[in-house]
Amino acid sequence: MNATFLTKAPIGKTVRIVDIDGGRAARLRLATLGLREGTTICVAHADGNGPVVIEVGGGRLVLGAGMADKIVVS
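RE: above sequence
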């Protein structure tokens, strides 16, 4: 799978974060949620227009579309 934004990742697939296309504040916010480059996550729900639900570290997180669109996965 080529690199794509999290909002475009296939549902049910396990992907790895390869980049965060955002400023310092966005990177820090995502890091506090445990989302850093190299983190493996599973996309539980994403419809392309709204929030994205991911599974990471045994739990689920809901990211707004704007924040999810800063996360590049492969």
